[in-house]
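Lab notes, practical 5.
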Amino acid sequence: MTELRMPVVVVNFKTYPQATGDKAVSLAKICEKVAREYNVSMVVAPQIADLYRVTTVVTIPVFSQHMDPGEPGRYTGHTLGEALVASGCKGTLLNHSENRMQLADIEEAVRIAEKLKLYTIVCTNNPFVSVAAASVRPSAIAVEPPELISSGISVSKAQPEIITGTVEKIRAVNREVAILCGAGITTGEDVSAAIKLGSQGVLLASAVAKSDKPETALRNLVGPLRK
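Output from the prediction step:
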């Protein structure tokens, strides 16, 4: 099973044109460069169509943005774990607010990922969903209030009680799962605040993937984590 060093910064490329195709490769290389220079644990999550081209050019962990439950065979249009492994992928996001899943499907996907030694980050939108997700024992949970995603207003500032409350509730049912914070993370100050509130890392997207100067943006974000 892939293990991530904490704290970790996960950069979701989403389907932004600035992070698609050859631009996904360029952005992944920037992320790797900054991760090495700052000695920061970092993951990139390009679109599924770009996974293989990205995994062949960087050594930092590359995650999928989604994985469907199911066994190889008659699942046209689905993305199965075996294909992710074959692409060089080390893990996957699950249940992002832009691609919700049923709890039973999340659990099945997590179990399959375990067998395939893929790291799983289950995205959740509130403390109650986070507790339910923690009960299926993924590798990590990323708390992201959907109303703050791409808003430029970080959850660590606008709704810090979500982080502190979620950490407490999750630890009551699962003391091993990593807890990440997402939504609106745009500055190094946001990252520092999230860590101080009990998060073990951050999941972010537009602050880097849509930036005109992604390397500068990334340096500012991870600066507080520099070792």
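Observations recorded by the TA: The CA atoms of residues 150 and 206 lie 6 Å apart. Residues 8-225 form a domain with the TIM Barrel fold (CATH 3.20.20.70).
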